[in-house]
């Protein structure tokens, strides 16, 4: 029987925990493992100030290593739970569960097919991650529903009230044979959404995800949208992000009102080994009572944190150093997945 009360919660709703997978030498982080572990340690310290953290580790040796690493930080180890499972990489926003919530604490772990962002990278172990977490008993009695259609968590935004925001550039790459109408129907059905809003513009150079929405525009409480802008007219992104801003300004809430928009400042270009890295401030993470904001060592860091805090009133703003992450073309939101309150067994 279909539970008509199921919906995709907004990220700012109460959470049980945040889920991450720790980088190790068998992942793509091997070349810069020490630097990226420093970001993960800072993230663990930030999350456990406010709520529990579940860390997926490849084996017992990695678990012991992580504990040693975190003992030298302010992380609250009493709030950390470890789960040993194999994984290809650590982008749990895209391989972790998209959790729908219903009445009476009924949860559905929506397990879309993960293809390594359209077959760019091997993803067999990551595609099995949700099933492994279920078998490990992480989610109690939650229903596990596999959907054989490629979708990543970073590719969708939810306002918690039935509206999903996504990008055409990403989903047409995953499903070139399908029309927008067909994909909208699949998203509404799979996510129990009432409507799907599409953006045709917006991208970041160096982004492997084909313009995931969580690098570009994010819902915030009170019919707000926070988005990555570019005020540098000489930058290659300027025209595209300006057009995206115009698209966002044209969107309407379910009751026909415009959204309140919060444009984010633009970090100066970060070039690494001849390639530009995708440094988006929109890739922030909301936790209970706080919002964790990426910092890149740029003069725009503090202004981005201020604006994000303004869009999420009443929350503590914590900056997390994320420059090591963008070497692999993602940031703070990309490596995390929030789990709704009541889900964790």
Automatic annotation (TrEMBL):
Keywords: Hydrolase. SUPFAM superfamilies: Pentein (SSF55909). It holds the Pfam family PAD_porph. It comes from the Bacteria. InterPro entries: Peptidyl-Arg-deiminase_porph. This is Agmatine deiminase.
């Amino acid at each position: 029987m279909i539970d008509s009360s199921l919906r995709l919660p907004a990220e700012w709703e109460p959470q049980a925990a945040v889920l991450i997978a720790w980088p190790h030498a068998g992942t793509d982080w091997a070349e810069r493992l020490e630097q990226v572990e420093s970001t993960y340690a800072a993230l663990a310290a930030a999350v456990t100030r406010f709520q529990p953290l579940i860390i997926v580790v490849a084996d017992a040796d990695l678990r012991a290593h992580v504990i040693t690493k975190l003992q030298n930080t302010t992380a609250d180890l009493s709030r950390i739970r470890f789960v040993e499972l194999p994984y290809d990489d650590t982008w749990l926003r895209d391989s972790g569960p998209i959790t729908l919530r219903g009445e009476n604490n009924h949860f559905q772990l929506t397990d879309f097919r993960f293809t390594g962002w359209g077959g760019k990278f091997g993803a067999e172990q990551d595609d099995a991650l949700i099933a492994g977490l279920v078998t490990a008993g992480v989610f109690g009695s939650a229903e596990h529903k596999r959907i054989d259609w490629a979708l990543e968590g970073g590719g969708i935004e939810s306002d918690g009230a039935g509206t999903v925001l996504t990008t055409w550039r990403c989903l047409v790459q995953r499903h070139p044979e399908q029309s927008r109408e067909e994909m909208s129907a699949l998203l509404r059905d799979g996510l129990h959404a009432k409507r799907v809003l599409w953006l045709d513009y917006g991208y970041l150079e160096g982004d492997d995800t084909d313009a995931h929405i969580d690098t570009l525009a994010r819902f915030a409480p009170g019919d707000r949208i926070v988005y990555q802008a570019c005020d540098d007219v000489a930058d290659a992104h300027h025209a595209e992000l300006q057009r995206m801003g115009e698209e966002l300004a044209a969107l309407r809430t379910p009751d026909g009102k415009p959204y309140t928009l919060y444009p984010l400042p633009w970090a100066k270009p970060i070039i690494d080994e001849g390639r530009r890295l995708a440094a988006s401030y929109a890739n922030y993470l909301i936790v209970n009572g706080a919002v964790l904001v990426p910092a890149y060592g740029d003069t725009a860091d503090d202004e981005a944190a201020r604006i994000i805090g303004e869009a999420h009133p009443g929350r503590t703003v914590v900056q997390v150093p994320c420059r090591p992450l963008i070497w692999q073309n993602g940031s703070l939101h990309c490596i995390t997945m929030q789990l709704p309150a009541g889900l964790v067994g």
